[in-house]
Specification:
Layout: H1 13-38, H2 42-50, H3 56-63, E1 71-73, E2 91-98, E3 101-108, H4 119-134, E4 139-145, H5 153-156, H6 163-176, E5 180-189, H7 194-197, E6 201-205, E7 210-212, H8 216-223, H9 229-233, H10 235-242, E8 247-249, H11 252-264, H12 289-292, H13 304-307, E9 317-319, E10 327-334, E11 337-344, H14 350-365, E12 370-373, H15 383-387, H16 390-402
Parallel strand pairs: 3-4, 4-5, 5-6, 5-7, 6-8, 11-12
Antiparallel strand pairs: 1-2, 2-3, 9-10, 10-11
Helix pairs in contact: 4-6, 14-16
């Protein structure tokens, strides 16, 4: 490895101008994350708590191992849509550790339209399942949903990423041996009932959890049977009579503890397949990153300055450093894990496309994950580029990524 030597001066006027610009953008991003987590629906949150229920993110915080991070996915899904009344698309997804096992966690947010599924909710749910399937992650479903949001059902069911695809993926993962564990904390109606029903193990919370394909009002209209929700599909009935539930929990704390107990006895590997080494901090602080990238997108910067503040010990082994220099490729470690980095440093030309294609093939052979740092206006154009075979060589780059 060779350590990157930074030429950035944190005291320069340009650095300070860049840092000020990006700190403002970061602050706006933090505000939007905060709004998605708890903002704009205070009354609904109060009502939710009055029922003795935790918020979706609170359940996750209690579920994952202490002193470990939860990597939330798509926290700003559906931002700017539906008058911002569906923050995070009404569902929280992300990767966390439970009893040392890395899992995908999918949690409905019942403070958002009762946890109903919108078009974006389905896409986010399916994307989380796709990541879990690709990376061999057990799935934990924290269920508190009312099925599809009926006024939007024309957008929930069509398309490749439709509502039924969530069940298909859950079945496929279970068939592969990827554990599917669910806990029901509230309503679980219509299509939503299939999430716990398709799980390998299922927990229901007494008093709040209900599973039924048709609620009391539908039962009354359909067959003229009058019945309350608890008798129809409550936790005790499903745990003692129907067998839909495997475990009856007295409260949410017990349900979350039961999930941890299941995961602890899952006999699932807790180590990454990659050979790791002790993590080292970068030699240049990541806190300097906002000052590295120019506030003016027309002013270029050297992507190595970014790499120097990301990778362990700022060590970066550059692949083909004298060839195709508008795409910087190389290997490094991040938090002790080996990674291959592909980083734009200008427009892609034939040489840089070939450089990237060859590097991806090497990483595929060595089972090394890839990290892309994007900053590109596109491929090089013009007669010289075309005579140099840009169409064919850039296609090789695309092919390497696809395969």
């Amino acid at each position: 490895m060779s350590r990157i030597q930074s030429s950035i001066n944190p005291q320069s006027a340009a650095y300070k101008e860049n840092a000020e610009h990006y700190e403002k953008l970061l602050e706006k991003l933090r505000e939007r994350h905060s709004e998605a987590a708890t903002g704009i629906r205070e009354k609904l949150i109060v009502r939710h708590r009055e029922r003795g229920k935790m918020l979706a993110r609170e359940r996750i915080d209690q579920l994952v191992d202490s002193h470990t991070a939860f990597l939330e996915l798509s926290p700003l899904a559906a931002y700017g849509q539906y008058k911002n009344e569906v923050p995070s698309a009404g569902i929280v997804t992300g990767i966390g550790q439970i009893c040392g096992v890395t899992c995908m966690i999918i949690a409905n947010d019942a403070t958002v339209k009762g946890g109903s599924f919108f078009h974006e909710t389905v896409k986010k749910h399916v994307r989380a399942q796709e990541i879990a399937d690709q990376n061999n992650l057990p799935c934990i479903y924290l269920v508190d949903c009312g099925g599809a949001y009926l006024p939007e059902q024309d957008r929930v069911f069509p398309d490749k990423e439709h509502f039924g695809n969530t069940f298909y993926r859950q079945c496929q993962m279970s068939a592969k041996g990827l554990p599917q564990i669910s806990a029901v904390f509230g309503g679980c109606t219509a299509g939503g009932a299939y999430i716990p029903a398709l799980s390998d193990e299922n927990i229901m919370v007494r008093g709040n959890a209900r599973i039924h394909l048709g609620g009391p009002s539908i039962v009354k209209v359909a067959i003229n049977e009058e019945i309350d929700g608890e008798t129809l599909g409550g936790a005790e009935m499903h745990s003692k009579v129907s067998g839909v539930s495997d475990y009856l929990a007295e409260d949410e704390d017990e349900a979350l503890a039961r999930i941890r107990e299941i995961m602890a006895k899952l006999n699932w590997p807790t180590k990454c397949h990659a050979d790791t080494r002790p993590a080292l901090p970068p030699r240049y602080s990541p806190e300097e990153l906002p000052g590295v990238v120019s506030a003016n997108p027309k002013i270029p910067y050297d992507v190595r300055e970014i790499i120097a503040r990301l990778v362990d010990d700022s060590d970066f082994h550059e692949y083909k450093p004298l060839y195709g220099d508008t795409l910087i490729c190389g290997t490094a470690y991040i938090h002790g894990y080996p990674v291959g980095l592909i980083n734009n440093n200008g427009a892609l030309c034939s040489e840089s496309s070939l450089n990237g294609a060859h590097f991806i093939e090497l990483c595929n052979q060595r089972n090394t994950p890839l990290l892309f740092l994007h900053n590109i206006t596109g491929f090089m154009v013009g007669s010289e580029a075309e005579r140099g075979g840009i169409a064919k060589n850039s296609a090789k780059f695309v092919y390497a990524q696809a395969t």
